[in-house]
C-alpha cells in the first residue's frame, strides 16, 4: 500500500479514536487497519500511538505526523479535484466545531439550506463551548465568539454578536435597577463561566471599565442563566440570540444599556492547509452571506 493510503488510515484512526471506529468509516477490517498502522510504524522506525485496552493516545511524533499528514492529504485532495474538473462545484465533508447556544439558535436553519445549495457536500457538526484543537482533533473549521488567541489559524469575520445586561422585572422591583456598573456590587449576578469571580466589561465616559461580579449561580451555558434570570435570580449578561425572545416578551428587561461595550465578533477559523478547500470556503462564504456581516 502506498504512503498516502497509510496516511489516510492513520488520520482516520486519530479522528475516530479507535481501530474499530476507523475501520467502520473506511470500510475495512479492524485487523487490516491495525496491520497497516504497525507496518507504518515499522517503516518510519518510530511509535506513533500508545495503545491500551481502553484508548489510543498519539505520541509526540505521532501528533506531529498526523498534523503533517492532514496538510499533505488536503493538498492531494485539491490536486485530484483539479484533475477531475471538480473545483467548480464543492464536494466533500466539512467537520465543524461550534458553540452550543449559537449553533442551536442559528445552524439548525442555516445548514440545511447550505446542504441544499451544495448537494455534494456533507457536514459533521460538534457542539461545544470549549476551544477545540483543530489540527489535533481533525476539524476543518471552528466558529468562535470573542477575541481570538494568537495562532497560525486563519480567521474570517462572520458577524457581530450583540450582548445585553438584563434582569426580570420582578428582580428589579425587589432589588432596584442599577444606574452605574459600580452598583452591581449590591446585586445578585448570574455570570457566564466558572470561578468564584467573573469580570464584566463596560464603557464609561469613553473608557473601558472592568467590574468584578459574583453570584450564587454560575454556569457555562447561556440558556441556564437566561432561565434563572427570568425566574428573578439576578442580573445576567448574555448574547441577544439567547435572550432576544425573553426581552421581546417582557420576561427580561435591559439594564446599564449606556455602558454596554462593543459587540463581540463571530469568526470562522481554520488551518492554513484548508485555505484552498472548496467545501470549507463555500461554507464560510454562505455563513457570511446569511449572517450579514
From TrEMBL:
> Which branch of life, at top level?
Bacteria
Q: Name one GO molecular function term.
A: DNA-binding transcription factor activity
Q: Which controlled-vocabulary keywords does the entry list? A: DNA-binding, Transcription, Transcription regulation
Q: Which residues form a coiled coil?
A: none
HTH lysR-type domain: which residues?
1-59
Family per similarity comment: Belongs to the LysR transcriptional regulatory family.
Protein name according to UniProt: Transcriptional regulator, LysR family
Query: What's the source species for this entry?
Result: Pseudomonas japonica
Q: What is the lineage of its organism?
A: Bacteria, Pseudomonadati, Pseudomonadota, Gammaproteobacteria, Pseudomonadales
Amino acid at each position: 500500500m502506498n504512503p498516502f493510503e497509510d496516511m489516510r488510515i492513520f488520520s482516520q484512526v486519530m479522528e475516530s479514536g479507535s481501530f474499530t471506529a476507523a475501520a467502520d468509516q473506511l470500510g475495512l477490517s479492524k485487523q487490516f487497519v491495525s496491520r497497516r498502522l504497525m507496518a507504518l510504524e515499522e517503516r518510519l522506525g518510530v511509535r506513533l500511538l500508545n495503545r491500551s485496552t481502553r484508548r489510543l493516545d498519539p505520541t509526540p511524533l505521532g501528533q506531529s505526523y498526523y498534523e503533517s499528514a492532514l496538510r499533505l492529504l488536503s493538498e492531494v485532495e485539491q490536486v485530484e479535484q483539479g484533475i477531475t474538473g471538480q473545483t467548480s462545484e464543492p464536494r466533500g465533508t466539512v467537520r465543524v466545531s461550534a458553540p452550543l447556544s449559537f449553533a442551536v439558535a442559528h445552524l439548525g436553519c442555516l445548514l440545511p439550506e447550505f446542504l441544499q445549495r451544495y448537494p455534494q457536500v456533507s457536514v459533521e457538526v460538534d457542539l461545544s463551548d470549549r476551544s477545540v484543537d483543530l489540527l489535533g482533533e481533525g476539524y476543518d473549521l471552528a466558529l468562535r465568539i470573542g477575541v481570538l488567541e494568537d495562532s497560525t489559524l486563519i480567521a474570517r469575520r462572520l458577524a457581530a454578536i450583540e450582548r445585553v445586561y438584563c434582569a426580570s422585572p420582578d428582580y428589579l422591583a425587589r432589588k432596584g435597577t442599577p444606574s452605574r456598573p459600580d452598583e452591581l456590587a449590591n446585586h445578585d449576578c448570574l455570570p457566564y463561566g466558572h470561578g468564584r469571580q467573573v469580570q464584566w466589561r463596560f464603557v464609561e465616559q469613553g473608557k473601558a471599565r472592568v467590574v468584578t461580579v459574583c453570584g450564587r449561580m454560575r454556569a457555562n451555558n447561556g440558556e441556564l442563566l437566561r432561565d434563572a434570570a427570568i425566574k428573578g435570580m439576578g442580573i445576567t449578561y448574555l448574547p441577544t440570540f439567547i435572550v432576544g425572545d425573553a426581552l421581546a416578551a417582557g420576561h427580561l428587561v435591559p439594564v446599564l444599556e449606556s455602558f454596554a461595550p462593543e459587540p463581540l465578533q463571530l469568526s470562522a477559523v481554520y488551518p492554513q492547509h484548508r485555505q484552498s478547500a472548496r467545501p470549507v470556503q463555500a461554507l464560510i462564504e454562505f455563513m457570511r452571506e446569511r449572517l450579514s456581516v
